[in-house]
Design a protein that fits this description.
By secondary structure, the chain is of the alpha/beta class. Helices cover about 55% and strands about 5% of the residues. The strands form two sheets. The chain has a five-stranded mixed sheet with strand order 1-2-3-4-5. A hairpin with a 4-residue loop joins β2 and β3. α1 packs across α8, α12 packs parallel to α13 and α12 packs across α14. The longest helix is centred in the first third of the chain and has 24 residues.
Length: about 325
């Protein structure tokens, strides 16, 4: 028996992980996942509308010009793409020069994020093709909005057909690696650190020093189960870059904001100096770490996957090596 909220949350997480995987593959010029994306979107679109009958436009070994999916019954066509350029849209619109597609409704589904077109481009397309292009550009956000409106039976069928297998497809290490790389890609000025100094305090001792409450203690201890996975990802280089994002970025800023209401904070203050002030002003580190977890969720768009609580896996790792929390 599936729970509606649980199914929707799992679909949202699955779409996020798939996007991260596509982004990572594209960063090394590997576009193989884009092909699988066409089949996934075909099944999703047919699941969102019980009357839809999309098929792959390339079925039978013959490539269909300009488009990927065709629904002859409802006279709809779709382009599945990661390319967000104006040129891609204009080129795809040439499908209307093919007589058999005159009168078909064309939509663009973006495997990553859809583009934001300037007003001039929207007007040019409207004048040339007599269509409003903006509502025809869709991505994961539009997919999730459509899924929210499904009946319980339709949601269950869509979840089982398109998404239930994805959590089994990705190992814990693969998921963590994708989330780490996502956080790093979104951080504009990464200074790779190769000289990490590992702390020597036992975690239980450090939990006591920082006066961590029971709820946060439990989250940290559970996250520590995955610390060996974090250590071996990408031989440490990815984790080093991640430290710049999570510790030097998110964590330091949260501490700065917390202490600004209590004392003056200089722009070039170090984390060590922030920790000294935190001791002086009795900062609640349970509260700080909870805010850090929420900040990671906001940046990564994935809270948990494969039963991992990803933000706390990250926090537990840096807590263990004494990069967050007082030493």
């Amino acid at each position: 028996m599936y729970n509606r909220k649980e199914m929707f949350d799992n679909i949202s997480k699955a779409l996020a992980i798939l996007r991260y995987d596509i982004e990572q593959h594209q960063s090394i010029n590997d576009f193989s996942l884009n092909i699988h994306g066409e089949d996934l979107f075909k099944n999703i679109m047919n699941g969102l509308d019980s009357g839809a009958e999309y098929v792959n436009g390339n079925v039978g070994g013959k490539n269909e010009a300009y488009i990927d999916l065709v629904d002859k019954k409802n006279k709809k066509i779709a382009q599945i793409t990661t390319t967000r350029t104006k040129e891609k849209i204009i080129n795809t619109l040439k499908v209307y020069c093919i007589p058999k597609y005159k009168g078909y409704y064309l939509e663009f589904f973006y495997l990553l994020n859809k583009p934001t077109l300037v007003k001039e481009t929207v007007e040019d397309i409207k004048n040339t093709y007599k269509i409003d292009i903006k509502p025809r550009l869709k991505d994961h956000g539009d997919i999730l909005s459509g899924i929210k409106n499904l009946s319980d039976a339709a949601l269950t069928a869509l979840y089982k057909d398109c998404f239930s297998h994805i959590e089994q497809r990705y190992t814990d290490e693969e998921v963590l690696d994708l989330v780490f790389r996502k956080l790093i890609r979104d951080h504009h000025e990464v200074d790779v650190r190769y000289d990490d100094s590992f702390g020597s305090l036992e975690v239980t001792e450090k939990l006591a020093i920082n006066n961590i409450n029971d709820r946060v203690q439990s989250a940290i201890k559970t996250g520590l189960d995955y610390s060996t996975i974090v250590q071996k990802i990408d031989d440490g280089e990815t984790v080093s870059e991640l430290q710049t994002v999570v510790v030097d970025g998110f964590y330091k800023e949260i501490l700065r904001i917390e202490l600004r209401s209590k004392t003056k904070i200089s722009k070039d203050i170090t984390i060590i100096e922030l920790h000294e002030l935190a001791l002086e002003f009795d900062v609640d580190f349970s509260k700080i770490l909870d805010k850090l977890a929420k900040r990671i969720v906001a940046a990564a768009l994935v809270a948990d996957f494969n039963s991992m609580n990803i933000p706390w896996v990250i926090i537990a790792y840096y807590f263990e090596i004494c990069e967050v929390g007082r030493k």
